[in-house]
Design goal:
The structure holds three protein chains of three kinds.
Chain A lengths: L4 E4 H11 L2 E6 L6 H13 L4 E4 L3 H13 L3 E6 L1 H17 L3 E7 L15 H5 L10 E3 L4 H18 L2 E7 H5 L1 E4 L27 E2 L6 H21 L3 E4 L6 E4 L2 H16 L4 E6 L1 E3 L3 H8 L4 E6 L5 H9 L5 E5 L8 H11 L3
Parallel strand pairs in A: 2-3, 2-4, 4-5, 5-7, 6-7, 11-12, 11-14, 14-15
Antiparallel strand pairs in A: 1-8, 6-13, 10-12
Chain B lengths: L6 E5 L9 H5 L5 E3 L11 E3 L13 H5 L5 E5 L1
Antiparallel strand pairs in B: 1-4, 2-3
Chain C lengths: L2 E4 L17 H15 L6 E4 L15 E3 L6 H11 L4 E7 H7 L1 H9 L5 E6 L2 E2 L5 E2 L18 H4 L5 H6 L4 E8 L3 H19 L4 E7 L3 H4 L3 H15 L3 E5 L5
Parallel strand pairs in C: 2-3, 2-4, 4-5, 5-9, 8-9
Antiparallel strand pairs in C: 6-7, 8-10
Helix pairs in contact in C: 1-7, 2-4, 3-4
The chains are: A alpha/beta, B alpha+beta, C alpha/beta.
Chain lengths: 353, 76, 249
Amino acid sequence: MTEKVLMSGNHVIGEAAVRAGCSFYAGYPITPQNELTEYMAGAMAKLDDGTFIQAESEIAAINMLIGASMAGARVMTSSSSPGISLKQEGISFLSALELPAVIVNCMRGGPGLGNIAPSQGDYFQATRGGGHGDYRNIVLGPASGQEICDLVTKAFDYADEYLTPVMILLDGMMGQMMEPVVFPEYRDISTLPEKTWKIDGAKGRPRRVIKSLLLDVNVEEAHNWKLVRRYEQIKDKIQMAESYKTSDAKLTVIAYGIAARIAKSAVDRAREEGIKAGLLRPVTLWPFPERSLREAASNNTEFLVYEMSTGQMIEDVRLSLNGSSRIHFHGRPGGPVSTPADIYEQIKKYYPR
Amino acid sequence: MADKNKGRIKINSELCKGCYLCISVCPKHIIAVSETLNHQGYYPSKSTDSSDDPKCTGCAMCATICPDVAIEVYRD
Amino acid sequence: MTETIFKRPKYLKDAVFHYCPGCGHGITHRLVAEVIEELDIADRSICVPPAGCAVLAYDYFDIDVGEAAHGRGAAVATGLKRVLPDRIVFTYQGDGDMAAIGTAETIHAANRGENITTIFINNGTYGMTGGQMAPTTLVGQKSTTTPGGRDTKRDGNPLRLSEMLALLDGTIYIERVSVTSPKNIRAAKKAIKKAFQIQMDRLGYSLVEVLSPCPTNWKMSPVDSCKWIDEYMTKTFPIGVIKDNSENK
């Protein structure tokens, strides 16, 4: 399937995961990501060693992933905001146990039960480590069908390389949108580095223990610092952002995911009107692409952060820029999606004179 | 017959936590509480079987119920 | 010739148990280790310990161990077993873990007929956290959260999880045993061995519930604790085979 195919975002995640060698999926129905769960049910059944489990709960699903990841499989689960809240226990454990896993959050309006409209209200939860304890997860925010495919592929590799859960953070609109995608070839899992930590029975080797209970405070502290050293490595190596017409921009919109798609059209319209607008789109939400932001800031631009929330990513923008630039904000929490015309108006409103 | 099928127990007094379940199940009443504390701070069980007139049959009831795997049983 | 009648099983590490005097965990650990040795499955067995007193089981079982969060043993074991269908995966869980916080995971793993084995320690209390009421605490039994005794109007009734699980088509073998006497302990071992054998034969879900003394939290001597199980606990939780479908498979 190297030719272009038209697929919804949720299906792209599933197909990309299968091609990346995912052989274990557990999930629980929740809108707006059900198409992905359904896709995995079919896809896993086609594999010789594929497992699909419709779990009794989000908590059970993430804990099944823990077991399957301990056994060495490439594993994935998906959900939407309220379901991801339930998974936080398991995500904290995966992080503590240093287990690779890919977790998809197809965000919807919240807090609480909220609604099933597109939203970006889970940014804090995703990028701060939404469960208990001192940890971070890699968080990737795709903005197109093709990028969903590319980032899901990368997510499995990052998870294995850095022994951490990796979250794909998108929204209901990205999940439903049909776009052309070119998929990579199927990954031959046998060519990947051996997981020398997995547990599969101590045959011909010393037994292994995968645990997160570290009662000795010094051992737990050392474990925390070990994780931090890995996080520093991740920060150094995988920051990603797209810069669009930023070199001469006087006002740079910062947005991710579907919000960035909308903002891009608004930037194009502004440019047609002679307004020097640009777009900086974080692709990695954690690690946040601080270097790209600082580089953009060095061109004396002001920033307009647009989020489908009351303002969460803006805190990372402020931390990255550390007071060096003026930062404006436009947010629509709870589900409404701004049009390019709306964002164009915001660009005009905040454009420095 | 005198020496045939005679049992012998070895209590690891450092593993013993003094629950005395072994004493309660020994059919020959040849286990008692020691007068010396072990390093864990318990008075461990000890065998009182006499070498002159051994009563232990090696039934292993004591070892079976020992929660600390502190008893080994032999038959000479 | 000296014959060894009884010694520490091979796959029980040479460590001092952290359990209190007279605790049933030690006996049950030993039985599991003996069964693993006798069935010669140590190099393909994986233990999933709980959160609770037995959380440190990895210090004792000399086999691969993957720790689960409180109550999630059945889900973690499901993941392991589905990826490694020819390995022997067992959970070792307490009553709070199994019958309170992990009820959903337990029931659904059993209902799916996951080919795993569960050793379920029922001591009627939350041992590690200091003796609070468990789902299995008897009516009238005192605990730190039922200081006047378990009152059914306020606290509900003891949960018979094994009987509940026996109603499910996915479960093959469920037996309740106790570790209160050499005779009962030998029966417990037989049940544990059978449960593992059922998994080896790929028949489905097997569970052994172990009525286990907790002298510390019951505030009784170890000997009295065993008597209390025999005289009172077995009235609510009768020992014996609750379900055995292994012959029909």
